[in-house]
Amino acid sequence: MKNLKMILKRSTSYMLAIVIMGSFFTGCGTKTEIKNSEDTKKVVVSKKDLNIKEIKIGFVNELTGAMSSGGISVHNGEETAVDLINEKGGVMGKYKITPIYSDDKSDVNLAASETERLIKEEKVPIISGAYPSSFGMKMAEVCENNKTIYWCQTPSTDLLLKDMNRKYIFRVQPMGSDWGKSGIDFLNSNYEKLGVSKVSDLKIGIVNENSQFGTYVANSNESQGKLYGMNIVYKQDYDKAVIKDFNPIVNKLIENKVDVLFLSAYNADMILFLKSVKELNFKPKVVIGHGAGFGFLPDIAKEVGEDMINYFYDSEPPLIQLIQKDKLSAEAYELNQKAIQIAKDKYNDPNPNGYFALSFVNTYLLFDKVIPLAIEKYGEVTSESVRKAALEIDIPEKSIGLGYGVKFAPEGDQFAGQNIKGFAYIMQYVNGEMGFVWPERFKSQEGILPFPSDSFYSK
Hints:
By secondary structure, the chain is α/β, with parallel strands linked by helices. The protein folds into two domains: 55-174 and 327-392, Response regulator (Rossmann fold, 3-Layer(aba) Sandwich); 177-316 and 424-458, Rossmann fold (3-Layer(aba) Sandwich). It has 13 helices and twelve strands. The protein has helices at 2-10, 12-24, 68-87, 108-120, 133-145, 176-190, 212-227, 247-255, 267-280, 297-304, 330-347, 354-378, 383-392; strands spanning 55-61, 97-103, 126-129, 149-152, 169-171, 203-209, 231-238, 260-264, 286-289, 313-316, 425-430, 433-438. A seven-stranded mixed sheet has the order 7-6-8-9-10-11-12, sandwiched between helices. A five-stranded parallel sheet has the order 2-1-3-4-5, with helices on both faces.
């Protein structure tokens, strides 16, 4: 310090040089005030000292209660992404992330009130989280009304964005209708393996829980199936909170001689459904599911037996541990491997599910691509700057850990805020392991259909 004073006394030009250098070299420990504004949800980043601002974000998830199996997976993925970013110094290696985690206890109204509390009391410019679509819908409404970013994780209902023209809601993963379409597309590409010459020779059954998620997936199954001329002989929904007996539905599937079943169900109702399938000896040639309970097949197997779920197909975003090295950029693949190792070491989860994968990749994308652009271009992290940056990014396929690219539909689009480059994968569960069977460019194994001779459905 003494030497510095001597230099400053010698020449004002030296002083100028030091000032200039100070504007370029950061991390010297000078603390700059964080200015929070309730109206704009700002964390203002000074253009003179951009390196020491915290970036606050609120995460609301189902950490306890009936939906906690999914909510905990989402939380673990989010926390992993935040930890990896902060380990390297924060966003851009400079700005530490300050996450605020909240448990909505699987109560949709609490999810909404916690979202509002984080916005108004904690002054966060960004909210993320939620496993079920109904919770995401409530949180998105609160965020939009408060002009706060909702960075959607796993809620997939089309209604989150369809015809809403929302400005502050962004979803990276594909919509529920995309999940439904992918399953139908896969069948249309493989029906000849079922011993028929045309797809209309197959009898299709659709069964779904009647939440926003299940309804949109099932309706997409139906509409996409009709485009291909498929013969949909039975379609039935149910209320997962009320149903106690699936025998009437399963009997209808048997009565209509359904060859291919498309099923959208959560864990508890899927277990109950499969018990009826076993009791009544319903044996379709193929079963194709759509996330939710299908994302927890090992857990379902513990309740109904491995033979009841072996060879099931699942249409949803991918398990990152299944994506082969040559299908991703080197950076994206390496990040996936780090996340998988953390899941094993920190959460005792050697095979993290698709909800962990989604929330990890989505959260990392936010802090690695979107917020840096907001800082570099707009000089601050606010709901407005993040919104603008999100609309500007255009990320090619293979660049993020889920494989697909990222480009959000612009304002005025029917699905404003939806990633238009996303797609659902088709995976198959075979002897305790999942593998990709569709789309072709990401395929890791051939799909097995119909059910082989060692399956319950062929005996």
